[in-house]
């Protein structure tokens, strides 16, 4: 069993390496094609390989050469419902336990697991053996939830988020009931390449809803801070009444790794570097114009 998992992991990494090479080649061909069609000067970095790239463009013709990065990681997403496991760090406080219960209500087909003495390696192995698609781990600091980890199984990726402004359901005035139906999802300002990647990580935590579902979960990006809101609505089509079901919090992505949670040696796909001189001027998830 261990040898089989090692072989499958090695094959997956090989496919990911080929995918990165094909994506880089596709981007270079797109730059050359755009320069030729617009009658502009060929970029300096493409002059050496311009003839070879042009031959490949002629051979491709009108075929769609877009590289889809979801082929391996989310191959069966949407075909079958996701199966989630939610747990916490060791020795969770009562507030973190309550927050974990509320997060479990948000996610359909989610099972909450008491961490106990489980180490991460055994936890991931147990999830893989039971065909779990995503493992979610909540962390805290002095009783305040401050971190969320989403690990897609069996090969990754793993996304790390920081949490802030966490408001529980019982702290929201006039909070509505929580429905168990599959929710509709709203993603706002996830326009960049990283934004699309993050949208796919969050989107495939939820199964496909029915058209008559009256439950909405929103992920609104503003200056790379993602506001999470959970609502239900009622009333006729011309008069909709929203009712917040909670909880609410802000998320900020600070790292995406290509492997699973127990693998510390895997490649870092993206990492937040807030101390760079241009960090305050750049937005990584959405466009600056839409956020303003």
Describe it.
The structure is a single chain. The protein is of the alpha+beta class and 292 residues long. It has 7 helices and 11 strands. It has helices at residues 2-38, 50-60, 70-73, 94-106, 120-129, 193-203, 288-291; strands at 84-88, 110-112, 134-141, 144-152, 158-167, 184-188, 215-222, 225-234, 241-244, 248-257, 268-271. Strands 1, 2, 3, 4, 5, 6, 7, 8, 9, 10 and 11 form an 11-stranded mixed sheet that branches. Helix 1 (2-38) crosses helix 2. It is globular, with a radius of gyration of 22 Å.
Summed up, the helix count is 7
Mean pLDDT: 85
Strand tally is: 11
Major sheet attributes = 11 strands, mixed
Q: What general outline do the C-alpha atoms trace?
A: globular
Calculate the terminal CA-CA distance, rounded to whole Å.
Answer: 52 Å
User: What string, H for helix and E for strand, traces the elements in order?
Assistant: HHHEHEHEEEEHEEEEEH
**How much of the sequence is in beta strands?**
25-35%
Helical fraction:
25-40%
Structural classification: alpha+beta
Which residues form runs of ≥5 with pLDDT under 50?
none
Radius of gyration: 22 Å
Write the layout of secondary structure elements.
Layout: H1 2-38, H2 50-60, H3 70-73, E1 84-88, H4 94-106, E2 110-112, H5 120-129, E3 134-141, E4 144-152, E5 158-167, E6 184-188, H6 193-203, E7 215-222, E8 225-234, E9 241-244, E10 248-257, E11 268-271, H7 288-291
Parallel strand pairs: 1-2, 1-3, 6-7
Antiparallel strand pairs: 3-4, 4-5, 5-10, 7-8, 8-9, 8-10, 10-11
Helix pairs in contact: 1-2
């Amino acid at each position: 069993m261990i040898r089989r998992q090692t072989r499958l992991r090695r094959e997956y990494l090989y496919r990911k390496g080929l995918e990165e090479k094909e994506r880089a080649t596709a981007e270079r061909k797109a730059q050359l094609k755009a320069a030729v069609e617009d009658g502009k000067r060929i970029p300096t970095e493409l002059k050496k390989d311009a003839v070879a790239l042009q031959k490949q463009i002629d051979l491709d013709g009108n075929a769609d050469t877009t590289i889809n990065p979801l082929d391996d990681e989310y191959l069966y997403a949407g075909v079958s419902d996701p199966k989630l496991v939610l747990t916490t760090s060791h020795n969770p406080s009562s507030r973190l336990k309550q927050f974990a219960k509320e997060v479990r209500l948000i996610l359909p087909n989610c099972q909450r697991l008491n961490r106990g003495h489980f180490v991460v390696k055994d936890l991931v192995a147990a999830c893989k053996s039971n065909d779990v698609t995503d493992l979610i781990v909540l962390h805290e600091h002095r009783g305040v939830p401050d971190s969320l980890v989403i690990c897609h199984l069996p090969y990754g990726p793993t996304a790390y988020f920081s949490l802030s402004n966490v408001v529980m359901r019982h702290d929201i005035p006039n909070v509505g009931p929580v429905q168990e139906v599959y929710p509709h999802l709203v993603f706002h300002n996830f326009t960049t390449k990283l934004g699309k990647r993050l949208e796919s990580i969050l989107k495939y935590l939820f199964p496909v809803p029915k058209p008559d579902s009256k439950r909405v979960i929103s992920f609104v990006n503003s200056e790379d801070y993602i506001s999470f809101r959970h609502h239900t609505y009622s009333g006729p089509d011309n008069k909709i009444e929203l009712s917040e079901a909670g909880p609410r919090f802000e998320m900020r992505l600070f790292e995406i790794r290509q492997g699973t949670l127990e693998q510390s040696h895997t490649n870092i796909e993206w990492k937040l570097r807030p101390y760079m001189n241009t960090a305050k001027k750049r937005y990584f998830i959405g466009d600056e114009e839409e956020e303003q």
